[in-house]
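Lecture 7 notes: from sequence to structure.
We start with the chain below.
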Amino acid sequence: MQEYSVKVTLPDGQVMAVTASESDTLEAVADRFKDYYEDDIILGIVNGRLRELNKKIKSEGGRVMSNKRNKVRQFLCGHRILRDVRQALLILLLAVFAVPITALAENEEERAAIYVQVPEDWENPCIWAWDEAGNNAFAAWPGGKLDTDPNNAGWYYTWIPAWADHVIINAK
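Predicted structure tokens for the same chain:
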């Protein structure tokens, strides 16, 4: 049975080399380093690719890996994955809610809804909006006042002209 030298990059950037046999899984290697991580190790990055811990050291997707290329860049812990997923979902939600929802105002001008969450320490957030040609939706900085969403703490909304395709949310 052939043995491989596996280099593991720890959370602090330190690189450690261990020996693993061709029948070892990433989980077996991860078990050796679990004390270096605060949370459970659930995935590994091998040669730049995300891998499950049940993959064997020798066989990676049907290919035999050489000793030189067999590097576990880092192990990913549960809380980091969840944090990244939460951030991606927040960005997606902001993108969905920031996509203009049009409505007609009293003056028949087409309007777009803007729905945002701001940091807790912001008071009286405002919105500045303009279009590609530099036409401003408001007369002066800091722009229009955002209305508080009474059902969702920390969330604000307003309606702006649909032609205004650039916005800045500010706290004056």
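Points to note: Helices lie at 26-33, 78-98. The two ends are 67 Å apart (CA to CA).
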